[in-house]
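Write out the bound-state structure for fe (iii) ion.
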Amino acid sequence: MRNKIKADLIIKGGQVVAGAGQAPPIRGGDMQKLAVSEQSWIVCTAEKIAAVGEKEEIREKIKITGRTRIIDAQGMVITPGLIDAHTHLVFGGTREDEFYLRAQGADYMEIMAAGGGIASSVRATRQATLEDLVASGRQRLRWMLEMGVTTVECKSGYGLDLATELKQLEAVKILQKEQPVELVPTFMGAHAWPAEYKGNQEGYLDFLINTVMPEVKERNLAEYVDVFCETGVFSVEQSRRILTAAQKMGFGARIHAEEMSTLGGAELAAELETASADHLLMISKRGIERLKESSVMPILLPATAFTLRRDYAPARKMLDAGLPLALATDFNPGSCPAANLALTMSIACLYMGLTPEETFNAVTLNAAYSLGRGARLGSLEVGKQADLVIFEVDQYQKIPYFIGVNLAKFVIKKGSVVVG
Ligand code: NIG
Ligand code: FE
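---
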């Protein structure tokens, strides 16, 4: 038989969780669907998935050479590489002092108003060298990769001045070149008001829109722009100005919306057709309705609600309304020092009532879609990039079920084994 597929890597499964069997966004009741098969083989060739299916069928189609690597994954689960679509990965310093305060009941926004919180990470990030930021970022990406995360969105926003915002994004660019996790850079100068612009919000908005964003664009350092739309931080009107300017410059838009209060950030996301609206703990009925009429991906970050001891986003209501959902960690030094996406899935099941099936779609296809990568990442289908994880359990449900345990045994990025 001619034209056999030359196999670079063969994974002999195992239970294969291929995806939802449909293109993202996966909405409402469809999030319950997962294409799961037993004893399947996956063949990777030149960074892509070349075949998935029953072993007899695959055996006939492929050519095994002396360079073919074979992984025996019988009794294990194979999933697409997990995608963390919301993190603040690059920052200087840490805030374990606030961890004590919050454990005693202090409120996150009160700590922020008293000059701690984000402002404290801004001071440490300004002091850090580029090398410091690359080194700590490298370690955190290693944690994530070892847990099966192969794509990570990374926001700036701990500089709030030109040099430090660029330094954070430069660190992301360097990390992108030197390690396997695919990074999606987001500029988030609108994360807090810097002390230098106290009493001059107009001045800071002007600086972001007319100085920093054009520079970030010119140097091609970010794909998206994000805003912390929140009481006492950026108002809906200020967020609209920043995101509209961003879209005009050719950036995609994302928004931290309805995290601590119901401001209308969800409605703004729908109005601007942002790529995502994130947090949504306090989303209103109207916000849900407006998102439903849009193409915005709602991204829920339950490990933040867990850390801040707040009420969770109304995930069930959102799904019942027919919305799609993605899940992400929100990994950052304050409101969520949890970098474990599988833990986020466990919390989503236990505290937001999602099923394991829904959580898998939320951290694969829908997360990929929110990052503009739905056609290339997020499922194990022929032609897609060969990003996958082999977990040492025999049923995918056990991944969120064994809370906080790292079950990833092998991680494959673009067809290469990078862990295991
Ligand atoms: O998504 N809400 C704003 N930003 C982060 C927190 C950042 C921090 O506390 O350093 C968040 O929760
Ligand atoms: Fe965040």
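---
The pocket of N-(iminomethyl)-L-glutamic acid (ligand 1) is lined by residues 88, 117-118, 121, 228, 256, 259, 304, 330, 332-335 (CB under 6 Å).
The longest helix spans residues 201-218.
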